[in-house]
């Protein structure tokens, strides 16, 4: 919380009332005749054309899904098709005014928006630009099928390219816009400003905010439109995105040209149904979705309901709202009223609505109505409009033929390249900065107070006599993290960091102390306490080309960002066909002392999800080196830190933590103590308890323990561990996570499979209990303690002479605990 | 006062024996030296004599029972004397499972059912199993010190580092030949019967099979001019007949002597192969294949390189006699005890064969019969010379063909230039 914002009790305690300004509903009333000053005849016909293209595209898919054929061509498409027949005017109206540099994000029902924005971009791009875009996308692989035999103009070719690329993507063809890895619900094409569509309801609600943040922070042209459904307005992450997007600080604290709101339009494609649930009258209470704007900020998000059955009404709204955004008064909320004739999906029997209702909307069909109006106004003749329809049918037929031809449009050949998708999970690049320009900082790095202070710290924990330096003098793990992060802030101009208490406070655990002084608000700021938006916006930010460090204060709060961490962040690199990179380093601290909801090690949850890299360094040297690697990379990294260890000094790396830049490779476990009789492999802070146990084993039982710190969970190189087992024949795997379903179990299982012949006993997991984490006073019964290791060895691996177990590591106990689920 | 009769302990790795046959029945009068019963370990069979005169008061086990060593099997004494105190399971606690106490816990988790059959499942760690295989340690005989009595690496280590038993005291006078283990007729048909096979047969079968499964064996054949050796044999025979020496030195003894000398020059053949490492021996422990009624036995002659030709001769004689009588120290039959084996089928007229290696040893020499073969005596002049056949099987994992050939040629040379 900034000190310069004084909360005056006299002010805030005054009586009063909140005044709302009226929210316009369907206020547009111009005729085509009146609009002729704003649109040429060609413009108006193009609007008609674009709507027809969308209608025909969706109709084609509907016929393929329901009848296995379109226009005499047979095809079976087993995948999804969430169609937007009826919503064409809303899509075209939304996209018509958008420039190529304006980005749209969408939902599972976004074919129409892809085509509308694509057609809009094609109209605005020059032939040269189009050629360049088409030639370079996957080196022309998507273009080749439509280019062959094409005789028309470049723009006509680009339209074919758009239809084909989208359709091939829907049909999971390698020639699709995303190599067929996205499919119907996730197709997109960034060169036309079409950003990922999202099959999770409301998925774009926070990601798009991050995209707008990217545009603002990096001074990029253009606005961002989030096309989300009316039903998604009940989703938490959408509300979190709205809260993030409307933070006061953009206007109150951000300085200079950064002052002002986000260039964002939350465009509710309000087709009035969420699957079968009627949002007005049944599943929601807002009545008119535009009302929501009034609950979010004083500007009421400039909310307005627009008639989405009239493309010109939507275009009119976009022209007006763009002005607001250009005045830095965003974000804007639009409630674009529309209706889908098609069901939620082809399996939807529309049992939730009456035939009369559908027919009433069809009677006002936007394409038919708009066509009549064009004819009436003398803009086009019926024949011309019919020709557009006929041409579109031909376009769809030829595109479909190409897209279903296995020779021209093959699926990925996984048989020939069994690891093809695997190789696409990570981009694995090493990039200093995501953009080449001068980073925005407040002073040279060497003038930073924290940087100066670190100069006087002891970078190794012990003096030459082996005596530890005082805590205050010791360079700790938090200092290692700071050095890596501050270094990157001075290297990569796109890097931003945010989370709870990141600014002023310096992070809840003082990692960022000193960064506030070094960085302007637009690079380091406090977010709402709203994990979904913290991660969701980071995803949008990275998708657009930035690098970002969002922070989740406690691992326990990961669940609050479940969709973002588990569904969005890990998937987009592969789902985009490697078009997108995802340089997001999520810092997550693992707590203790704070009881059941603040002390969980959830490394296993992150490690379980394909597409995330997971690290958990526990020494200053490792923390700095692995953070450098994380920030040099282009992949999402879940960077765990232990709250027990922020002040711990470096006790392993000779010479202490280097002052200069260095990277430590992901995936390499590190031997922290050499030994020959038993291996102890640890995840996280348990390392230090394992080292205590190793000392006792040596002194009391003459048993030499080798202690290995996993450092990284994903990726993980088992070879050093297997080498250790070849030497010791025995292994204990330990970490602070509740043992059931933990990564410890995964390690144990792989080790058993990989080192079976060298094992003198099964790998034994010493994890935390499957309980709530109790209060600090009882924690020693929950988290692995040094004596647990010795007891486990004695009971399950190698009976130790004279040792009497205090803790029950018997098989009977293990069976019983499992049988009882505790 | 009555006295107990113990199941003797034969070799320190033996934990229990199978009681073979009672030669006396309860109530029989027994004199000191009378054979009471026969018993067998997994490697050999033995007979137990009465240590005192008396009446066989009681027997505690039946034929075919597996009896832990040092447990009472019978009681001897005067008629009417009490023998209850000798009953195993009284105050004797060795290897007798304590009465099970049933715990009052709601769930009793049983992991292990004690199985005393000879082929019981052994609880052993993968590492210990691999080590035992490489080191030639018999896991059946090991006692596990790990959880639930699991045999773990340290148990195998202990078994291999323990000093081998001292030279066995083998009685000079051969005892009566023990009856081969009785084979039980399992099934009888019109023209066949199916018999059980003895423990030792199973053991040989397994060892031979394992050997061929787990090593890369091949055999080189060569023959050596036996004239020198035959001359020496004649000389020793004469000296023995005249009483000048106590040992009748045989051709086999002389071949063994030559082999030991060759091994000293080619220590790579005096090795054990353990997959990822080789054990090089500083001494030669010579295994001698002995054909017995019970099956093939290969006792080891420890430190054979220290012995003179008569020493070798006398010791080999003792070992083979003990093996044939079934009272050989079982520890000496462990293939890991010998560093190299000689198998002689020359007496049976075999001209060439491919002996099977006793793993973990690296090689074995088959000695064949002496056959007169044409040989160039001097320039262009040929004559028939008695040649002894030598068949060296070696593990190609451990030795290359060149080394093996040179080693075999060295044996040949030693035989041809024998100096004893």
Structural class of chain B, please?
alpha+beta
| Gyration radius from CA atoms of chain B, angstroms | 25 Å
CATH topology value of the largest domain in chain A: Rossmann fold
Q: Describe the sheet with the most strands of chain A.
A: 7 strands, mixed
Structural class of chain A: alpha/beta
Largest interface: A-B, 17 and 15 residues
Give the assembly state of these chains: heterodimer
Give me the CATH architecture of the largest domain in chain A, please: 3-Layer(aba) Sandwich
Largest sheet of chain B: 6 strands, mixed
Q: How many beta strands in the DSSP annotation of chain B?
A: 20
Question: Based on DSSP secondary structure assignment, what is the total number of beta strands of chain A?
Answer: 22
- CATH homologous superfamily placement of the largest domain in chain B: Chloramphenicol acetyltransferase-like domain
Please give the alpha-carbon distance between the first and last residues of chain A: 42 Å
Low-pLDDT windows of residues of chain A? none
Number of distinct helices of chain B: 7
Give the proportion of residues in helices of chain A: 25-40%
The CATH topology of the largest domain in chain B comes to: Chloramphenicol Acetyltransferase
């Amino acid at each position: 919380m900034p000190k310069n914002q004084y909360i005056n009790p006299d002010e805030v305690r005054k009586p009063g009332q909140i005044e709302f300004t009226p929210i316009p509903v369907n206020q547009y009333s111009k005729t085509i005749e009146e609009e002729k000053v704003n649109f040429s005849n060609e413009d108006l016909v193009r609007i008609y054309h674009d709507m027809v293209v969308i209608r025909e595209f969706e109709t084609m898919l509907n016929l393929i899904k329901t009848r296995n054929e379109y226009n005499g061509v047979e095809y079976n498409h087993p995948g999804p098709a969430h169609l937007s027949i009826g919503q064409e005017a809303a899509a075209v109206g939304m996209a018509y005014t958008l420039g190529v540099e304006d980005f749209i994000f969408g939902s599972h029902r976004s074919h129409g928006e892809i085509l509308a924005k694509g057609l809009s971009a094609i109209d605005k791009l020059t032939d040269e630009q189009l050629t360049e875009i088409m030639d370079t996308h996957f080196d022309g692989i998507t273009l080749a099928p439509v280019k062959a035999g094409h005789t028309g103009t470049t723009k006509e070719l680009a339209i074919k390219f758009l239809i084909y690329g989208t359709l091939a993507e829907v049909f999971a063809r390698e020639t699709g816009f995303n190599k067929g890895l996205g499919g119907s619900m996730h197709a997109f094409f960034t060169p036309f400003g079409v950003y990922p569509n999202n099959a999770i309801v409301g998925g774009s609600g926070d990601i798009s905010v991050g995209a707008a943040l990217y545009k603002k922070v990096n001074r990029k042209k253009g606005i961002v439109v989030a096309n989300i459904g009316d039903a998604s307005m009940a989703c938490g992450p959408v509300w979190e995105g709205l809260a993030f997007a409307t933070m006061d600080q953009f206007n109150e604290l951000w300085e200079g040209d950064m002052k002002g709101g986000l260039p964002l339009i939350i465009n509710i494609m309000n087709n009035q149904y969420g699957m079968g649930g009627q949002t007005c009258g049944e599943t929601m209470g807002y009545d008119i979705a535009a009302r929501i704007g009034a609950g979010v900020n004083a500007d009421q998000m400039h909310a307005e309901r627009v008639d989405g059955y009239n493309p010109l009404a939507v275009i009119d709204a976009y022209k007006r709202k763009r002005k607001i955004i250009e005045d830095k008064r965003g974000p804007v909320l639009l409630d674009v009223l529309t209706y889908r004739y098609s069901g939620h999906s082809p399996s939807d029997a529309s049992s939730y609505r009456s035939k009369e209702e559908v027919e009433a909307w069809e009677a006002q069909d936007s394409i038919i109505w708009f066509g009549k109006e064009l004819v009436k106004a003398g803009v086009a003749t019926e024949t011309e409009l019919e020709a557009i329809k006929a041409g579109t049918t031909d376009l769809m037929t030829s595109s479909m033929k190409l897209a279903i031809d296995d020779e021209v449009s093959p699926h990925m050949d996984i048989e020939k390249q069994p690891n093809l998708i695997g190789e696409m999970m990570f981009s694995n690049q090493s990039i200093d900065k995501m953009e080449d320009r001068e980073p925005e900082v407040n002073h040279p790095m060497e003038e930073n107070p924290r940087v100066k202070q670190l100069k006087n710290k002891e970078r190794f924990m012990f003096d030459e006599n082996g005596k530890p330096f005082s805590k205050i003098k010791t360079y700790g793990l938090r200092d290692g993290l700071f050095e890596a992060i501050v270094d990157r802030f001075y290297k990569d101009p796109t890097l931003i960091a945010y989370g709870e208490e990141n600014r002023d406070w310096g992070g809840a655990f003082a990692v960022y102390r000193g960064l506030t002084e070094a960085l302007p608000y637009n690079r380091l700021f406090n977010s709402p306490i709203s994990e979904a938006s913290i991660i969701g916006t980071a995803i949008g930010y990275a998708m657009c080309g930035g690098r970002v460090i969002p922070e989740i204060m406690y691992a326990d709060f990961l669940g609050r960002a479940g969709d973002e961490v588990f569904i969005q962040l890990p998937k987009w690199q592969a789902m985009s066909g490697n078009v997108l990179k995802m340089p997001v380093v999520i810092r997550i601290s693992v707590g203790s002392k704070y009881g059941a909801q603040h002390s969980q090690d959830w490394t296993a949850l992150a490690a379980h999800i394909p597409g995330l890299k997971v690290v958990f360094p526990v020494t200053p040297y490792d923390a700095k080196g692995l953070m450098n690697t994380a920030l040099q990379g282009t992949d999402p990294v879940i960077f765990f830190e232990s709250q027990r260890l922020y002040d711990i000094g470096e006790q392993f790396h000779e010479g202490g933590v280097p002052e200069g830049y260095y990277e430590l490779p992901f995936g390499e476990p590190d031997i922290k103590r050499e030994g020959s009789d038993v291996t102890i492999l640890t995840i996280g802070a348990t390392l230090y308890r394992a080292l205590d146990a190793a000392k006792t084993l040596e002194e009391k039982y003459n048993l030499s323990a080798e202690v290995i710190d996993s450092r990284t969970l994903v990726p993980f190189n088992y070879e050093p561990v297997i080498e250790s087992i070849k030497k010791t024949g025995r292994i204990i795997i330990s970490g602070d996570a509740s043992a059931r379903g933990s990564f410890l179990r995964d390690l144990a299982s792989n080790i058993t499979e990989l080192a079976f012949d060298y094992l003198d006993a099964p790998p034994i997991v010493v994890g935390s209990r499957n309980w709530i984490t109790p209060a600090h006073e009882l924690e020693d019964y929950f988290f692995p303690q040094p004596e647990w290791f010795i007891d486990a060895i004695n009971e399950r691996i190698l009976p130790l002479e004279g040792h009497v177990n205090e803790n029950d590591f018997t098989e009977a106990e293990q069976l019983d605990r499992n049988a009882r689920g505790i | 006062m009555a006295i107990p009769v113990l199941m003797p302990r034969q070799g320190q790795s033996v934990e229990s024996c199978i009681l073979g046959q009672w030669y006396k029945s309860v109530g029989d009068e027994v004199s000191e030296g009378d054979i009471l019963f026969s018993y067998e370990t997994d490697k050999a069979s033995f007979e137990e004599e009465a240590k005192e005169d008396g009446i066989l008061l009681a027997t505690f086990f039946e034929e075919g029972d597996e009896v832990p060593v040092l447990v009472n099997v019978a009681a001897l004494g005067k008629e009417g004397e009490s023998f209850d105190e000798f009953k195993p399971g009284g105050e004797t606690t060795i290897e007798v499972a304590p009465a099970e106490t049933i715990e009052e816990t709601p769930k009793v988790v049983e992991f292990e059912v004690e199985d005393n059959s000879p082929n019981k499942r052994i609880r052993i760690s993968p590492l210990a199993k691999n080590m035992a295989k490489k080191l030639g340690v018999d896991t059946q005989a090991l006692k596990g010190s790990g959880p639930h009595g699991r045999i773990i690496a340290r148990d195998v280590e202990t078994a291999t580092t323990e000093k081998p038993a001292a030279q066995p005291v083998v009685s000079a006078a051969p005892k009566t030949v023990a009856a081969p283990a009785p084979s039980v007729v399992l099934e009888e048909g019109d023209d066949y019967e199916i018999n059980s096979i003895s423990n030792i047969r199973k053991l040989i079968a397994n060892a031979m099979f394992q050997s061929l499964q787990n090593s890369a064996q091949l055999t080189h054949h060569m023959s050596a001019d036996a004239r020198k050796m035959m001359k020496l044999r004649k000389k020793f025979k004469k000296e023995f007949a005249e009483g000048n020496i106590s040992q009748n030195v045989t051709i086999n003894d002389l071949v063994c002597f030559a082999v030991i000398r060759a091994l000293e020059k080619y220590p790579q053949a005096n090795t054990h192969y353990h997959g990822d490492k080789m054990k090089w021996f500083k001494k030669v422990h010579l295994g001698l294949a002995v054909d017995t009624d019970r099956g093939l036995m290969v006792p080891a002659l420890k430190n054979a390189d220290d012995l003179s030709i008569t020493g070798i001769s006398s010791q080999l004689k003792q070992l083979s006699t003990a093996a044939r009588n079934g009272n050989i120290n079982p520890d000496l039959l462990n293939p890991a005890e010998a560093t190299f084996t000689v198998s002689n089928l020359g007496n049976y007229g075999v001209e060439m064969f491919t002996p099977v290696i006793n793993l973990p040893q690296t090689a074995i020499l088959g000695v064949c019969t002496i056959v007169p073969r044409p040989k160039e005596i001097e320039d262009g002049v040929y004559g028939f010379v008695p040649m002894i056949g030598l068949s060296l099987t070696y593990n190609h994992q451990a030795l290359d063909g060149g080394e093996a050939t040179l080693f075999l040629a060295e044996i040949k040379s030693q035989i041809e230039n024998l100096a004893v």
